[in-house]
Specification:
Elements: H1 5-8, E1 16-20, H2 27-39, E2 44-47, H3 56-61, H4 70-79, E3 85-92, H5 98-111, E4 116-121, H6 126-131, H7 139-158, E5 161-165, E6 170-175, E7 187-192, H8 195-204, E8 207-210, H9 225-240, E9 248-251, E10 255-258, H10 262-273, H11 282-286, E11 291-294, H12 296-310, E12 314-318, H13 322-332
Parallel strand pairs: 1-2, 1-12, 2-3, 3-4, 4-7, 7-8, 8-9, 9-12, 10-11
Antiparallel strand pairs: 5-6
Helix pairs in contact: 2-4, 4-5, 5-7, 8-9, 12-13
Length: 335
Amino acid sequence: MAESVAESASHVRPFRFAVQTTTAKSATEWRDLARRVESAGYSTLFLADHYIGPGPVSARTLLRPQHLAPIAAMAAAAAWTTTLRVGCRVFCIDYHVPAALAKEAATIDLLSDGRLEFGIGAGTNQGEYEAMGLTFHDAPKRVSKLEEVVALVKAHWSGEPIDVHGEHVNVSGYAGLPVPAQQPRPRILIGGAKKRVLSLAAREADIVSMSNVGWTPRNDAGLTPAEEARRRYAVVREAAGSRFDALELESSPYLVAVTDDPDATLERWSANLRKALPEAGPDLLRHHPNVLAGSAEEIIDRLQERRETTGMNYITIPRKHMEEFAPIVAKLTGR
């Protein structure tokens, strides 16, 4: 498990960076944000697939209300930019009719001249499901549906006659239109933490997104956060087999600060965490896979080190940190 990417892979994946946001509230704000993300050198602008507004469900589930629905917002962002890739991190299989979602995605890719990144997942937030009147099935059933949806999306995008039949998806009798601009198809992103989903992503996706690692010093398996990240990497590497070198590995730091005083920042963050997790100290956060705190040079070194140990080359930054992180993007993109 401690084996590095450099020791096991035949090449080093170049860095690229994305911004994820849920907070734009108007056409002007969204247009200006998309153009700033593009001009700052980020590869991709991601939304999330959430629908609830303010209220008790938002407070209970910790979901920040998102004003813009992702499909229309992605199309608008692509229209207002020229090189920026657009995506949703990630579409929930149960929030959309799968055959319709496949066509919507192909349309965005065609109209953007091939700038779609298609994130898809099995759904995780039971409170949002119930608020929207949806049944939240157990994890094995949701993952089985995800497998079938991915097969349908690929069949639709091929332009060939569709014939997909399973427990959850039954689509046949027509060929999918439009054919996407990207060939052989748009890049698919699948994320998760457990072995079954990570293995599915390794076999079927182009981008494997690693869910955030827990904040406890050791998880139920006795692994530190860094060890858990390396465990997930090992699962992906094994499941991907010969296609591993073609994959990108993506993650998003939960806590970000470009600062010359990281110790004070880490102490402040850990003080907040200790309200719920008394054992969470600054040292835990300093080495946590989802924390980046330090000067630009220190963060660059840390990202390069993490790429060697966990394969992460595609980093998604929260919107509120995009300006302070831009110099790091400029130095590392493509390297």
